[in-house]
From TrEMBL:
Residues 7-156 form the Flavodoxin-like domain. GO terms for molecular function: FMN binding; NAD(P)H dehydrogenase (quinone) activity. It comes from Phytomonospora endophytica. InterPro entries: Flavodoxin/NO_synth, Flavoprotein-like_sf, FMN_Rdtase-like_dom. This is Multimeric flavodoxin WrbA. Signal peptide: none annotated.
Length: 200
């Protein structure tokens, strides 16, 4: 492997559900050899956060869905990233996204779409979930990966009266699949760039 692949998971979570999903996204990324994956909570926008994201090959965005959109805390991070946008700091990095909310839909798609647009404004390359839909046949179950049938990113449904420990295992496995897919894509991009550099 030609150096460590760095995956940063930039996320907000208030009550812990999105945090637990983020942990599974990280653990999925770590299954890919040569990968370093770090959780980067976006509540505190300090130099350490921006430095970690600057050195990442891939940034995976995560937020709960609040009122049909990314949380205000995540959005504050997105707006603050305009300073990076101004210098094209995340140009050509990989990006992906995940969200959690109480409803099966809960308008989570809008949150993922917000994240794709954020990535596009930065000139990043979006990595989708890459899983077919789960729980869409009579023999499917509510514990299938991608049981909610999303394609843009990973989505989890969280009962508002249950703690993060009781999250659906299929949703957590979906997050892990996203992390692994992004790390693998970052590995391929790194190898391709090195190959092209050698080829001249
Ligand atoms: C202010 C607020 C707005 C919410 N809006 C939605 C929503 O639009 N759709 C939905 O399905 N759930 C909604 N919920 C439920 C949260 O998305 C859900 O509890 C989620 O798991 C919280 O994530 P967290 O534990 O990482 O903070 C909302 C919760 C709050 C507190």
């Amino acid at each position: 492997m030609n150096g460590t692949i760095r995956v940063a998971i930039a996320y907000h979570s208030a009550a812990g559900h999105t945090h637990r999903l983020a942990e599974h996204v990280r653990d999925g990324a770590l299954t890919v050899p040569g990968t370093e994956a770090r959780l980067v909570p976006v509540e505190t926008l300090d130099d350490g956060l921006w430095d970690t994201l600057a050195s990442a090959d891939a940034i995976i965005f995560g937020s709960p869905t609040y009122m049909g959109a990314a949380s205000a805390t995540f959005q504050a991070f997105a707006e603050a990233s305009s300073a990076v946008w101004a210098v094209r700091g995340w140009q050509d990095k990989l990006a992906a996204g995940f969200t959690a909310s109480g409803g099966m839909s809960g308008d989570k798609l809008n949150t993922l779409q917000q994240m794709t647009i954020l990535a596009a404004q930065h000139g990043m390359n979006w990595v989708n979930l890459g899983l077919g839909p789960g729980w869409h046949m009579t023999y499917g179950t509510e514990f299938d990966r991608n049981r909610l049938g999303f394609y843009l990113g990973a989505a989890a449904q969280t009962f508002n009266d249950l703690p993060a420990e009781d999250m659906n295992p299929g949703d957590l496995a979906t997050g892990a699949a996203l992390g692994a897919r992004v790390a693998e894509a970052a590995r391929v991009v790194r190898a391709g760039r090195l190959e092209l550099a050698v080829a001249g």
